[in-house]
Write a structure and sequence with these properties.
Oligomer: single chain
Number of strands: 0
Helix content: 55-70%
Strand content: under 5%
Order of helices and strands: HHHHHH
Length: 71
């Protein structure tokens, strides 16, 4: 459903968080700002490590991000 949401909703942390809880693939439709917000990513990765596949290469190279996904 996030794929069809407005840009404003794709940039809303609560909306994206709920969408990802329902289906981790929804993360790919989050706003680019949220997809690059490290604190938000750390929170999501604790419960949804599958979103790691949708992160940028630079974030996939970040030790703390990868640790959060595999913890």
């Amino acid at each position: 459903a996030l794929a069809f949401a407005s840009d404003r909703l794709r940039d809303n942390r609560a909306i994206v968080n709920e969408a990802v809880k329902s289906d981790s693939r929804a993360f790919q439709y989050a706003s680019s700002r949220l997809r690059e917000t490290k604190g938000f990513l750390m929170q999501l990765l604790q419960n949804e490590p599958d979103i790691l596949q949708y992160l940028s290469f630079s974030l996939k190279d970040d030790d703390s991000i990868v640790r959060a996904a595999v913890a």
